[in-house]
Amino acid sequence: MMGELPAAREHLEQAIALYDPERHGSTAFTFGQDLGVAVLSHLVWVLWLLGYPDQASRRQAEALALARRVGHKNTLRFALMYSAMAGAYGNNAGLAAEHSASLLELAREQKFDLWRAGATVVKGWAIARQGRGEAGIAAIERGLAEWTSSGAEWMRPLFLSLLADACALSGDVRRALDLVGEALTAVERTGQCWPAAELHRLQGQFLTALPNGARPAEASAALQRAIQIARSQSAKSWELRAATSLARLWRDEGKHADACDLLAPVYAGFTEGFATPDLKEAKATLDTLRVNRVHASPPPAICGLLARRRSSAVSPGHGRGERKDSLGRFPSTQASTRTRRHIRTCGLCAPGQGSQSARRITSVSTSPRTGCSKPCGIVPTTSNPR
Q1: What are the C-alpha distances in Å from 198 to residues 64, 141, 240?
Q2: Which of 81, 202, 255, 382 has its CA 20 to 30 A from that of 336?
């Protein structure tokens, strides 16, 4: 809860290694839920935040399977609540809906109000995400009121963020911003620091969507705060989400190179989870940025060089109508060298090179006079591609 994720993972993995169902099965009746299930459920959250969504998914399946084997109803409710929340913060509305529906059914049977309230919040968010905004918001508000009336502060900041997200989806961006502010206040009051990065990201995203005019400078500052907090906690999943939002803002401002340079290394830091919603969204954003970067306008230096080549209309290296530079080289010869180097490294021009080679060009531009034998229309803007 305090955002110390690497240390949390270490302790949780040590705990699960020590857990023995035969020896520790009675803990469910002492502490309210089986310790093994509780440890696994917390480990799911930590692994996801650290950037291991596939490992988190496997641990989640283990937690649910163990909860069913234990045969203790409150343990199963606990596991379902954590699984439903994992679907919500993982941006997986289908998973959130499935587990919250199971928990609601179990909670109604046992008349356990706290779990019912939490499940209602998550189910409402899933409903809003699936296109029924008004019904979803009503359900979240009902569940949040029940949760708050019990005196529980645990998970309240995240529940407020789900309500904010649903409001923004329905067009009520101002209320969404107010709810994020309330959630940040709750984070400060309770010390539940782990959702802070996501709250700042939502704040930045909502600031770009205000109906009477976006506030991009404030949005950029909020998104950069989100990235800083995520990095300080090693919360790679929050960092990826915030970097994707900031990259899109910069893209809309025409800063394609900056946006690509921000998002690319964050995305490259992941080794799994490429089928999850966040990584798919980040990749789609990155692909668009790379295309826009490739088709950006040529810088003045290249434009001037091309203009001189057109006006002189001489063969490279012959020097007719050209002046040598201070090192005794002809500009057209240098341009031809860059073009040849480009053909060797361009993922579009060099057969079999693919996107990996295309990424070796740090910055490219388009021109109808590239000298390239293929139709990509790319001219390197640097004479020293990596």
Answers
A1: 26, 20, 10
A2: 255
Cα–Cα distance between 90 and 238 in angstroms, integer? Answer: 10
DSSP 324: -
- CA gyration radius for the chain? 27
The predicted pLDDT at position 119 comes to: 96
Q: Which of 198, 154, 153 is CA-nearest to residue 180?
A: 198
- 195 closest CA partner among 36, 277, 89: 89
CATH T-level fold of 1-194: 1.25.40
Q: What is the pLDDT of residues 256-288, one digit of tens each?
A: 999 999 999 999 999 999 999 999 999 999 999
Residue 317 has a CB neighbour count (10 Å cut-off) of 12
pLDDT above 90 for 213: no
Instruction: Record the pTM.
Output: 0.75
Q: Residue 103 class from Cβ within 10 Å (0-12 exposed, 13-18 middle, 19+ buried)?
A: buried
Going from N- to C-terminal start, the domains of the chain cover 1-194, 300-313+329-380
**Which pair of structure tokens corresponds to residue 189?**
């009051």
Identity of the residue numbered 229 = I
First-to-final CA distance of the chain: 42
Quote the CA–CA distance of 57 and 92 in Å, as a whole number: 12
Whole-number percent of the chain with pLDDT over 70 = 74
pLDDT over 90 at 373, yes or no:
no
CA–CA distance, 365 with 263 (Å, rounded to integer): 20
Of the pLDDT bands very low, low, confident and very high (cuts 50, 70, 90), residue 44 is very high
Q: Amino acid identity, residue 313?
A: A
Report the distance separating Cα 70 and Cα 87, nearest Å.
23
